[in-house]
Amino acid sequence: MKQRIVFRVQLPCSKCPKKAMKVAAEANGVVSIAVDGQQKNEFVVVGNNIDIIKLAARLRKKVGCTDVVTVSQLQA
Prior knowledge:
Strand content: 35-45%
Helix content: 25-40%
Mean pLDDT: 92
Number of helices: 2
Order of helices and strands: EHEEHE
Structural class: alpha+beta
Largest sheet: 4 strands, antiparallel
Distance between the termini: 8 Å
Shape: globular
C-alpha cells in the first residue's frame, strides 16, 4: 500500500530542514521526500507501509513540533 503523508514541522533553526529530511529518509518504507508549503515547513513523504505515528514521534523528538496534515493512498 503506497502512501503519501504530509507533515508540518516547526523549524526553529536553519539546519532543521536538513535534519528533518534525514530523519524522514531513515524511516522504513520511505521512497521519496519533498519540501512543500509557502514557508517550506511541510514535508511530503511517499512510501510503502510507513508507520506514521513512529515517524511523527521521531520528527518531534529530533526536530520539533510536528503535525500530520494529510494521509492518502496512492494508486500503484
